[in-house]
Structure formats: C-alpha cells, structure tokens
Amino acid sequence: MSVDALDLSPAPTPRSRGGNVWRHGLTDAALQLRNGEQLLLTVLIPVGLLVIGHFFARDLLPIEQLAPSVMALALWSSCFTGTAIATGFERRYGVLERLAATPLTRAGLILGKTLGVVIICAIQVLLLITVSVLLGWRPSPTAVDLVVLPLTTLGAMISFVACALIMAGRLRAEVTLALANVVYLTLAVGGGLVAPLATYPGPLAVIAGLLPTGALGEAWRSFSTGAADGPAAFWPVAVVAAWAALTTLVASKVFRWMS
C-alpha cells in the first residue's frame, strides 16, 4: 500500500454510548475474573461443590437436585457477593465517582456493571452445565419450566445485584466484604439455594420460599426434574418480580457514589 493511500487525519468522533457500555461491561467482567477471591466464588467453589457432591454425597443430593442447586448458588455468588465486594472497594478508592464523570455517565456505569455480571453468569452457567452433563445430569423440563426458569433467573439476578448495590453503596468496603460473605453463606444454607424447600422445617420452608434465593433454587430444580405444571408453577416469578421491584427502588434511593 502506498503512503498516499493512508488516511492519517484525526478522527475525534467519540465512541457511541452503547459502545462505552459494552467496553465497560467487558472490562468489568475481565477484572472480576482476574481477582483471586472473585474467581474462587464464581468458578472454583461451584465446580468443586458439583464434583465433590456428586461423588461423595449423591445419596443425600442426587445429580438431578445437585446440579441445578449449584447453578443457583453460582448465580447468587456472582450477582450478590461478587458485585457487593467489587463495588464496595471501587467506591472506597474513588473509582465510581471518577467513571461517573466520564462520557460513560452514571447510567452507563450501572448498565456496564450489569452487563459484566451477565457475562460472568453466562460463563458460569455454561461451565456448570458442561460439567453437570459430563457427570450424568439429564434435565427434563416441561413447557412451563422453559418459561418460568428464564423469568425467575432474570428477576433474581436483578434483585441480587440491587441488594449488592444497597450494601456497597452505604457501608464501608471492609464491612461490605465481611457482611457480604456472611449473607452469602447464610442464604446458601438457609435460603433455599442448595437444599430443596421440602427438606426445610415448615416455617423455615415458607420463609425461604418467599426469598428470591428460594425461588431461584426451586425454579432450577423444577427445570431439572420437570415438576412445573399449572398456574401455581409461576410463584417463583411472582416472588422475584416483587423483590426486584422493591430492591431496585431502594438501591436507586440509597446508593452513594462517593465514600
């Protein structure tokens, strides 16, 4: 190519808003995957639970229950725990207030972070589905399950991210780190994520069933066994929709960009 064919004139046109959001989402996802603690929460713990549970606890939780439960747990860890910890320290070090003042804007920053979470969750689910199938998981969803699962998953992810922003937007980063891990473990055990609600004592089963974690866990387990049938099968959708609306409203009111 001749020198005369090269166009070396400046091109000051800014990137589109959608392009800014997309690049920020990719960057946010990459940063989380490079972080050792985030990688432990998003990949190593879920895969480890899946493999160890299959080989050493299959009598208590067969693969038909174990695989969907671990997927629900993985979504919970990424959307809530990972988001809360990362956002808390970004807020502490002034990252959020600086990015919010760029052409990305505050709305673009939130959308970008949301996109980053979606990318992480997609990687998790694809990885866990692959491992589960190799271990013998064969889901048999009904037509209702194919509708309920994506709606429940979307609503649960929104409510988890909103809860993470509520925590990270009001508390100190160190407090967020400790509290997010405590809440993660508490609801992983008692929130209907790992164990089916039918195994809980009566009052606790009712409470867990009204939490977005319980709704998400039951939706995934129903997808695995093909248990959803009739209008009552849509209760997880109603639960996560209510939580998503409430937590998003609260997050929009209480989140602080500066520490």
Description:
The protein is built from ten helices and no strands. The relative contact order is 0.15.
What is the count of β-strands?
Answer: 0
Q: Report Rg.
A: 20 Å
Largest sheet: none
- Average pLDDT over all residues: 87
What is the approximate shape? globular
Estimate what percentage of residues fall within beta strands. under 5%
Helix-strand pattern: HHHHHHHHHH
- Would you identify the regions where 5 or more consecutive residues have pLDDT less than 50? none
How widely separated are the two ends? 54 Å
Q: From the helix content, strand content and strand pairing, which structural class follows?
A: mainly alpha
Task: Kindly list the characteristics that best describe this protein.
259 residues, mainly alpha, 10 helices, 0% strand, globular
How is the topology of this model organized?
Layout lengths: L16 H18 L1 H21 L6 H30 L2 H6 L4 H30 L8 H26 L4 H18 L11 H8 L2 H14 L9 H20 L5
Helix pairs in contact: 1-5, 2-3, 2-5, 3-5, 3-6, 3-7, 3-9, 6-9, 6-10, 9-10
